[in-house]
Amino acid sequence: MAHDDVITLRYQVARRAQAQWAAVPAAQRARQLARAADWMLDHADEVIATIVHENGKRPVEALGHELSASVANIRWLCEHGPAALRPQDVPLPLMPHRRAELRREPWGVVLVIAPWNFPLSIPLGHVFAALLAGNAVILKPSEITPTIGALIDDILADCGLPANLVGLVQGDGKVGQRLIAGRPDKILFTGSLATGRKVMEAAAAVPIPVCMELGGVDAMIVLPDADLDLASSAAVWGSMFNGGQVCASVERLLVHESIREAFVGRVVDKARSLEPATDLGRITAPRQRDVYDRHLADARERGLTIRCGGDYCTPDTLAPTVVEGEGIEDAAVYREETFGPMLAVRSFRRDDDAVRMHEELDGGLTASVFSRNEARAAAVASRLSAGLVSINDVAATLHALPQLPWGGVGSSGFGRSHGIEGLVALTRSKVVDTPRAGGLGFKRPWWFPYDATQREVIAAHARLVGSGSLRKRARAAADLGRSTLRLLLRHPRL
Ligand code: TXE
Predict the structure, then answer these.
(1) Of 296, 298, 318, 320, nearest in space to 308 by CA
(2) Which residues pair with 104 in a beta bridge?
(3) What's the pLDDT tens digit per position in 118-170?
(4) In this prediction, what percent of the chain has a pLDDT beyond 70?
(5) Is the four-CA dihedral 64, 69, 74, 75 of positive or negative sign?
(6) Which residues line ligand 1 (CB under 6 A)?
(7) Hey, whose CA ends up nearest to atom 4 of ligand 1?
(8) Is the pTM of this model over 0.85?
(9) Mean pLDDT throughout 54-58?
(10) Nearest to residue 198, comparing CAs of 218, 185, 179, 216?
(11) Which residues lie closer than 8 Å to 475 by C-beta, 6 or more apart?
(12) Minimal CA–CA distance to 400: which of 40, 76, 121?
């Protein structure tokens, strides 16, 4: 069967399964989905081995950022999600005779297009939230980590889901385009800005709502009174964990000029002390080397100083690299996402300069500010454009914490996953309003035909709901009572 026919069929069977799944109460859906956490813990070694083998990250990172993050997310979603999906009675002070119920209904079929850097926790987080919200899911893992993507079928095997509720479609960007053409009801994309634009372009043709997580050139700001030991350790881990292949990694270091050498010296010493075999995973996507080579060549052409690293310790591991120098603000390593164990250092004089430097680049997924003066750090943090700003910690620590919404601003994308906000975003709100006293209700006196009495009622009502002073409201209430009585005594003629 031609690929497009397979995709068409995938969507057809997913829609049928979704109708069945949406009829299951959210609390029951949660109970079934929660079994996946048990499966993952029971098969932890297999899950970790598969990730290490195909993605190349260190076992401790596969355990922490993939397995542990995923089971925590599942548990939290299953415990807190159903309440957020429950229909709510919304009081209507302006329409006391009506009862409004706000419902959170599933979109239908959600398409998840996933990256290779967190090949389990990122897609799994999206898949679970979408399923808990009552959707079906078509999942396209990255073509670089297909085996890990396929794990999701095993992880869900014990959940008793309707057949075909989750459709796994392997393939590259071309398959991604075809999946968009298959008209999902919503798309969750994690990947590069360049690809994100193609996804949005294809989605716009239908149109299909999208949630985009596109990475960023995130910065750490180190104020003059920062704890240099803490901040330098945070800078090294924040920029080099997962081999630096993290959307929320520290890509830029903005450090106060007065502590620059003391701080950068510590960063360089700690970066040099990393053991590639134990601390740095291999480069997952070979094409990343092109990015690293280009950024290093550009830095050298500009005469920047490569304080450490700048070459490969093994064919697929870049040595931890720190780059600084006059004019770094124009260098590729500073302006573009390197997505590797590479840090670009720039110094500033005033807090305002640090904010300006941060804001110069469009986008912002996460940021961090280090200072012993929390109020000063908070003042800087409040001025930064980013989805998450950490004070005296690196924001990536909080990546995909189930309680917090996750996503960026500007060229780092839009929409939110995780947290209640991310779950609710996987539903469509619908209001159903009915007569509060039951029955058929009555013809509304403000329906046709229009006349002077109606206008008096509406004018008095506007003064009641819009006046700021109690005296005016009291007078408006009296006017409203009198004019409404006159209106009700007049039999509606239509
Ligand atoms: O991403 P792509 P890649 C950034 C990071 C990295 C760069 C490239 O800077 O260096 O992106 O990584 C699918 N229509 N991030 O090549 O190309 C593709 O098959 C539909 C940051 O992995 O964006 C894969 O499943 N789908 C990011 C997914 O999109 C298409 C994590 C991502 O691939 C498509 C990963 C198309 N036209 C990379 N083309 C983050 N935010 O963490 C590709 N795909």
Answers:
(1) 320
(2) 429
(3) 999 999 999 999 999 999 999 999 999 999 999 999 999 999 999 999 999 99
(4) 98
(5) positive
(6) 113-117, 140, 142-143, 172-173, 176-177, 190-192, 195, 198-199, 213-215, 247, 285, 288, 291, 337, 339
(7) 192
(8) yes
(9) 96
(10) 179
(11) 463
(12) 121
Active site residue 247: yes
Q: Which residues share a beta bridge with 26?
A: none
pLDDT range class, residue 281, cuts 50, 70, 90: confident
What pLDDT does 400 receive? 67
One-letter amino acid of 133? A
Instruction: Answer yes or no: is pLDDT of 432 > 90.
Output: yes
3-state secondary structure of 61: helix
CA gap 121, 143 in Å, rounded: 16
Q: Among the atoms of ligand 1, which is closest to the Cα of residue 144?
A: 22
For residue 107, what are the contacts with CB-CB under 8 A and spacing of at least 6? 133, 135, 185, 186, 209, 426, 427, 428
- Burial classification of residue 411, based on how many CB atoms lie within 10 Å of its CB (0-12 exposed, 13-18 middle, 19 or more buried): buried
42: pLDDT strictly greater than 70: yes
Local structure of 186: helix, strand or coil: strand
- Which of 54, 61, 66, 213 is an active site residue? 213
